[in-house]
Amino acid sequence: MTRLANISGKEAATAFQKAGWRVLGQVGSHLVLVKPGIRVNLSVPQHKELSVGTLRALIRHAGMTVEEFLNLL
What we know:
73 residues, alpha+beta, Metal Transport, Frataxin, Chain A
């Protein structure tokens, strides 16, 4: 679980973009990411450090594994 510690919202958004997600826009302090063919939008908080639970939920909604996500960092 500690492998996901200390990842910022900016780093997470960059990793999702490498996986094919695109920034649709920003709502407050959250980036909204979309991917063609997937009905789910990701809302990534732009915090200095994301909580492990929030990051795991984003990875799950993106249809990725933790290892796939970590390889994109």
